[in-house]
Task: structure prediction
Amino acid sequence: MRVIRRSASAIALAGVLTAGLSGCSGDDESGGSKGSTTASKGGVTVAKADKPIAQATFPSPIAAGATVDLAILGLKVDGRLADLTVSMTPHVRAAGSTQRLTPYLLNGGTSLGVFLIDTVNLKRYLVVKDSSGKDLQTDYVSTNLANDQPGQLSFTFAAPPKGVDRIDVQIGNWPTFHNVPIER
Result:
């Protein structure tokens, strides 16, 4: 089973890189077993969690009174890599606003800067790059999100060493999520 999962991950990653997929909206209605389902977008299958590991609502500088719901759907280690899946739901109430909603703009027009912070080994993990130097993450500058609808983002990191069961997750300018469990 593990070989199949790694092959599926490799195929999904290749599909993302070659198709230029910029994000998944998470609006697929396909069912699955208890605890997770899968969504298929552009031929790429992405795991979705039924229940977030951690979630919070934060203010967003995109407009007065705007907020964003952030939810960590999973942090899974597979071999030497760790995949972080995040849901972002914007809530922008500006009257007559047709403004584009992207993770970049919701974060105040600055880099999303997603990091894993290992408080055991005192390390910060950055998103890994592929052989052409591109970050293995959803393009947070061009990914459009629908108001009041969750959008799914993914980020790939070097896996924290065995023995690290929990890690802090920093997303954008918002407060850090502490002690997020790592699935191995």
